[in-house]
Amino acid sequence: MKTEAEHFVIPFFKVKEFAQKGERHMALDSVALIALNNFRQRFGKPVRITRAYSTPEHNLKVGGVSNSLHLRGAAFDLDLGEGDIGRKTVMLRQSGFNEVMFYPKTGHYHAGLENGR
To answer: Where is pLDDT greater, at 44 or 19?
Structure first.
């Protein structure tokens, strides 16, 4: 029998992929989830979520801004592997995200929906 964490939130992603370690509460923006699923379909290979919803305490700990989209579950940090940064950025935008950044230090992408849409 599957645990709650093993259930799919959307076709390509399970609950446990969005959860912050040690936290039982999480908020996820439904439109951001649709954009993430759209991206995964376009990308055609697995996407690793490195950060999704964050509590205010965790956001402060990781140096997040006070109005971070992670606080509303409207942003995801993603490990997309190596490859064309420009192509991946365009694909994230075409999938519905309007806040897309690449962090060269970690090689991760930030994909969010400013103002929830």
So the answer is: 44
